[in-house]
Amino acid sequence: MIIPFTKAHGAKNDFLLTWAFEAPVRGWKEIAVAICDRHSGIGADGWYLVRPPDEEADASIRLFNSDGSEAEVSGNGTRCAAAFLIAEGRLPAEDEIVIATGAGLRRLRLVSREENRFSFEMNMGRPRLEPGNIPGVNATLLDVGNPQCAVFVEEFPADWHRLGAELESHRLFPNRTNVSFVKPVDAHTIEVRFYERGAGVTMSSGTGATGAAAAAIARGLVSSPVTVLTPAGPLTLEWRGDNAFLTGPAEIIAKGEFYR
User: Fold this and answer.
1) Co-location of 116 and 144 in the same domain
2) Segment 151-167 mean pLDDT
3) 32 and 107 belong to one structural domain
4) Less Cβ crowding at N or C end of the chain, within 10 Å?
5) Contact partners, residue 235, CB within 8 Å, separation at least 6
């Protein structure tokens, strides 16, 4: 079995993208685990199946995490999908890009392009605070199209990876959650570390950055625009009305075939 792929990353949150018509018709979860493996596969945080335009969107995408689970949406990954569509010649770069995700339609605008390096602004929708309390953890729970648990810290704990894994599967989250550790820096800046549902530690996260910024704003710690400092570099969140707009990079780095 031969599976074509394009590899891209959004602030070092990396993804593999395959046209759905070039992928097998079943076994997607198992393929995601195999193709995303960093030793015996190509290596990525997730694998996308991309479908061509329909009446409501320029493309639709399904995201499978590296553990085979399916995710509703990824901010960094959706930017990578937009870069893929433009690079494949499926979309004119000057138009608004509308992509159907598991969390609904997401609209993007190309900010800049230099060969295979892109920058997009993406409407992340309206973050929603969720009820819930985790004893002993200073956290805010949110929904930004997928579940988020933003944990506020003065300094990042040495064992934040372990704590992130524990919180991901906490009984409060029957479908698991994404976890971000948020350190306020100044009135417009936060620093964040990410433990993503189904992928583990990642260098950055678009939805995680959105949730972290929204939680920090709700607590009165920062105000828009918010720079989110990730291990892979900054992402920018700006609020217009009730919606959050995320600006960040997407870079296409490889094309090839995976032998399954």
Assistant:
1) no
2) 97
3) yes
4) N
5) 11, 204, 206, 209, 227, 228, 246, 247, 248
